[in-house]
Structure prediction request, 739 residues.
Amino acid sequence: MNAMDLLKDLNPQQVKAVTTGTGPVLVLAGPGSGKTRVLTHRMAYLISVMGIRPYNILTVTFTNKAAREIDKRVRNLIPNDLQGILMGTFHSVCARILRYEAAHLPITANYVIYDDDDQLSVVKRSVRELNIDEKLYKPSSILNAISLLKNDMIRPEQMTIKSYKDGVVQKVFDRYQQVLISNNAVDFDDLLLYTARLLEEAPEVREKYARRFEHILVDEFQDTNIAQYTLLRHLAGENHNIYVVGDEDQSIYRWRGADYHNVERFEADFPGTTKILLEQNYRSTQTVLDAARAVIDRNRHRTPKALFTERGSGEKVHLYVARDDRQESEYICQKAAELINKLRFKAGEIAIMYRTNAQSRLLEEAFIKAAMKYKLVGAQRFYGRREVKDVIAYLRLVHNPSDEVSLARVINVPQRKIGDTTLQALMEYAHQLGVNAGTILLDLVQGPASAHWQYMSKGGVNRLADFGSRLQEWLELKGTLTITSLLQKMLEDVEYRQYIEDETEEGQDRWGNVEEVLRLAYEYEQQGMDAFLESLALVGDQDTIPDAPEAVTMLTLHAAKGLEFGAVFIYGVDEKVLPHSRSLDDPEELEEERRLFYVGITRAKDQLYLSRAEFRGGYGGMDTTDPSRFLEDIPRDLLKVEGQHRSYSSNGYGSYSRSNRQEKQEQYIWKSPPNTVPLKQPELRYKANTRVSHPSWGEGWVLESRIMDGDEVVDVSFDSIGLKRLLANLAGLTVIEKK
DNA sequence: AGGACGGTAGTTTTT
DNA sequence: CTACCGTCCT
Prediction:
């Protein structure tokens, strides 16, 4: 492909970004401005115009999805020209480097990667061994602290101890790391950390990679943490050809260690950086962009961007103020139905976003009631399922018998009468001798001849030895069988199927999940166990969720990043929800909440619906709310307020705490009775024994119809699917005949 | 080893 | 309010 063809569909800013010279480049790309487009065209430009060999290019992303997308799009531009390129997520690139450079590390090349659950179990064990009170210091909070320290590349001994808790974290951190190393395991953070340290401390390794990667490209740069930034700095140290793309305004992972100040650091560390702004937006209407800009402009430490579009101003932003959160969810459901039925929106073009997962519940209820299809993003994870983890743990154990976390997971699953006491005794004994439980287990296979036999409990030792010989056998088979056959053999040996597949539907599902793992294993026959386990650990299941274009998407604002929808609803734009109550006392966190709102707004192509409720279900009863402070920043003339409640006297967004106490009193009056002016009871549109027709379920008989909460609720027995409860206003039923 | 009870916490989650 | 975890009891 020649340069002309490559550039023909780009705007001037994009052309500049794609064709700029070598050296450090910082592309700040507003939402919808063609960030991925620029990155992929730049890669194609490097290879086909500048003649760079793919082997000398490194491209890193945060998600597998992004990596796949970029790969696909570059191949589209320059087919068959990517041989030798290294492209992948930070974690997978690091995993590869570490496998290759294991000789420099405290682990061997067949190390396993621990996920959150595994990490937590190591922390728990460490906490117990150190006699720390789990009530006072929750393992999950300690783990969180450890993770942040690792992201910042701080070793236990480098910590500043400001509180007793810091001291606890320090001790656990130290122990935790020892356990990981002795298990020949790394956690997600270690992948980055080990690589960053390796490049920092081993000049010959650093030079090798820094020379190879003549050009480095980074996606979503604003989300890098210190470890990632450090490793990039070292990798780019030789050639300085580092091309980073990002947007400070979309940095929403501070709590995971991401530090958008890396954008500022970048300019300082790489003098002569070419900085390019992409400000033309191809996604949203000008109204949406103006609202977004009004919200984000109040943040500091950012490069101001003037997003513009050629799409025209479009519709106003809808703001709906509901009485309570239930009504708010019903409103959204109803509006979504309207968009689909009246405005011919595809359900898949509609998304509902919220701050916390818990908020999805009322929405789901409303959708179920209205018989509307929806899909929930990020609810249940395939790899998080118990049976999947069990099966993987078996495989990991055979791959790396030092892995005590996996051993502990499977040694009594299915039950082998090896209880906690026996296992603890085994591990303690092993640690005293400075070896792993697996080592002892395998030695016990010799029976009473084993030097360790007498140190185990009488009852437990035989059962341990039994499991040991199983493990021994599998280890011997490992070299001869394929992954699939080995896995099948193991599952048969332990009668795993009988264990999980009971008569229930759930049992069937579970076995189905196991079969899915087997199927995945089959795909890795050629690449081997290392690659298979690595991909299980590092490849999320984002794309194992089937696409459902006929359903409305419900997702958190975080999960919405990088996506776009024709119509976007943002649910719960109230103080303490967005911004979240936990962020209120920290200005940095408030800025991040603001970015989160910004990300949500800028997902919308045509229609944006913001909603809030004057009463919201707290932990106990109902709480009164204040409108989100972010709403105040959106100019009134961009909004169309659609709420139907209370006075709009104060500022038009529903109650606002100008005179809070008085307001509250007033609201309580409002609450009881709930409808001071009783809503007119709508008349029943459907009666029992009426033949009706539904757009998707066909015909059925009305069994009963009544008014609930001011809505007509109809029970219909459909010929196709049986009994359904529907809202008359939304279901779109037509009467066929009356009996 | 599994069920019942009680206490406690209750954001976001690319890998 | 509920969902989850740990503990205790059978």
Remarks:
- Residues 387 and 510 of chain A are 6 Å apart (CA to CA).
- Chain A has 29 helices and 21 strands.
- The first strand of chain A starts at residue 25 and ends at 29.
